[in-house]
Amino acid sequence: MPEDNEDIREVIFGALRAALPQARPLSDETHIIEDLGLDSVAVMDFVMEIEDRLDISVPLDQIAEVETLGDLVATVQRLKAAR
């Protein structure tokens, strides 16, 4: 199971690439909504996929604070470390 930031980043980026209708460049600075054009339903589906793949649960209040892919990686790392 992925534990370090690089492994978590690869899981998140891989899940996002599979969810996007067309390939886009991804980085820690990529804004999930503004840069990728995901609506709230697509974001929730994407987060549920990440939760399943990484065996975590991301509280809604923490999802609301995530703006970039780097924010998401850091949030997932904190959640995994707290277990």
Chart the SSEs and their pairings.
Layout: H1 5-19, H2 40-54, H3 60-65, H4 69-81
Helix pairs in contact: 1-2, 1-4
For the structure shown, list the relevant keywords.
mainly alpha; Non-ribosomal Peptide Synthetase Peptidyl Carrier Protein, Chain A; 4 helices; 0% strand; globular
Account of the protein in words:
This protein starts with a helix and ends with a helix. It has 83 residues and is an all-alpha fold. The chain has four helices and no strands. Helix 1 packs across helix 2 (40-54) and helix 1 crosses helix 4.
Offer a quick outline of the entry:
The chain is an all-alpha fold and 83 residues long. It has 4 helices and no strands.
What's the total number of strands? 0
What would the CATH topology be?
Non-ribosomal Peptide Synthetase Peptidyl Carrier Protein, Chain A
Low-confidence runs: none
Query: Can you identify the CATH superfamily?
Result: ACP-like
SS summary, helix count: 4
Instruction: Report the major sheet.
Output: none
Mean pLDDT: 90
User: In terms of structural class, how would the helical and strand content be classed?
Assistant: mainly alpha
Percent strand equals under 5%
CATH architecture assignment name: Orthogonal Bundle
Distance between the termini: 13 Å
Radius of gyration, rounded?
Answer: 12 Å
**Which shape, going by the Cα principal axes?**
globular
